[in-house]
Amino acid sequence: MIGTIDIIIAVCYILAIVTIGLWTGTRKKKNGTTTSGEYFLAGKTLHWPMIGLALFATNISCLHLVSLAQSGFDSGLLNGNFEWMAAFTLILLALFFVPFYIRSGVSTLPDFLEKRYNKACRDWLAFISIISAIIIHIAFSFLAGGIVLETLFGINMYVSIIVIAALTGLYTIIGGLKAVVITESIQSIVLITGAIIITFFSWNKVGGWHHVTEILGSQNALEKVSMMRPLGDKSGMSWMAVFFGYPVLGIWYWCADQTIVQRALGAKDENNARAGALFCGFIKILPVFIFVMPGLFAYVLYHSQKLDLSALQHVDQNGQLALNTKGIYTLMITQLVPNGLIGVLVAALLSGLMSQIAGALNSIATLSSFDLYKRFKPATSDKKLVQVGRLSAALALIVSIGLLPLLNQYQSLFEGINDVIAHIAPPITCVFILGVFWGKASAVSAQLTLWIGSFLGAAVYAATKLYPDSFLAGIPFMMMAFYLFCACVLIQVVFSYVYPVQHTAQSRELFWKSLSEPLQSKGWSGLGNYKTLSLLLLLTMAVLYTVFR
């Protein structure tokens, strides 16, 4: 049970984060005012450690702690691919996308699309980015956090969500990106610390790796320790689905999503942005060991009768006794961790929840102000832009809370969020890749690709949910993402020849003339050089995939 000391620790943590966020965001500037550049991009003063930690914190939420543990219990290390494959897309961000965005001087990614293509592309991406931030980064995180807090404290899910939303919104809306990044850096450390604690206690209870493999063998479940599954695997996550489907999701998420890339756009310079992205790539190695493996250990403990999951049992639609594994992480906390440390674990969960929401709110504020409001009122003052950003962030909180009943229908929250991304990402990934690397990609082709591709994604998503026994519903969502991406590439290439590109003086400079061009920058000397770090990260991932293949 949750003790008084644990409640005190959790409450003190929340108050400390809110205080730090407000203090950071309200410190008096030299001229006494906050400019839009300071509010939305932290005045471009961020250094690489803060960028790397903030990228990780914005990505990892309470949803990941809860649902990756659930996936570890259900399918073993398989969903760890979403964490390790991110390293490869972060290398792409560091080598090709970050220097491009910084040199082009854009404040937002829709701003880049207007300069590379046209205003219609900018408007569409701004709209899609706001919608995806509300659903993916905020609503799903709220849902996971609400489930955990209701289980731990017995507080109504919606009451706890509204309180957390109000407190996170307070320092985010007032403080801007600098408040978000500083609090995210702290929250990353707390989150990782909490995850290491639960990993230590579950590992200690298991009794060593030999016992893990022994129990898995007795349950005919040794495939749970494998990251690479054969073609036709019942999980739908074969090696082909991972290597073909993940890049479509990953390039959108890490290289073309405002919520993520905004941290790099606030960098002091190009080298700090590149190093920050690669630093995050190294940190992304950790989740498999401290988020996914505890769920695998819970599976072993359950079958060793060392973990009581009776509280999760329910009767399914077929009248059979089944486990609702969404609550695995919560039960692990209460049964494996001693009082006092439970409060630290709760603080870690709250860190993941608050940092994800804070990052998304700041990006929504930026997109609403720069890419929507200022588009139609270009003479808007900095003060007015900040006000619009704050109002839009507050509205986003309200809308995301209203979406919770709909999203709560997914059995696995982690699969639910990636299912949504798989249908949103393909057209955006397509227009960014072709826009950055192919000079013949035209404005009209990009506009039509975004429109048609988004419609295709929405139609396929609706069809799979309305007709769960259909052919489309039988296609794994990762492969569906790849097929939709291929369709979008075909659409854009064809229309680029039907409507040939007509470059402006600006757009003519907004694509790489060769793959070697972005690598000509010398960078820092020594181990901090972005090329050295990229090679080291690639070698590390190759070794890890060899061990856990």
Automatic annotation (TrEMBL):
TM regions (residue ranges): 6-25, 46-69, 84-103, 124-149, 155-174, 186-203, 236-255, 276-302, 341-367, 388-408, 420-439, 446-463, 475-499, 530-548
Top-level division of the source organism's lineage: Bacteria
Topology with respect to the bilayer: Multi-pass membrane protein
Keyword tRNA-binding tagged: no
Keyword ATP-binding set for record: no
Pfam families on file: SSF
Record localization: Membrane
Family: Belongs to the sodium:solute symporter (SSF) (TC 2.A.21) family.
Entries under PANTHER family matching the protein: SODIUM_GLUCOSE COTRANSPORTER 4, SOLUTE CARRIER FAMILY 5
The name this protein goes by in its record: Sodium:solute symporter
Organism in which the protein naturally occurs: Danxiaibacter flavus
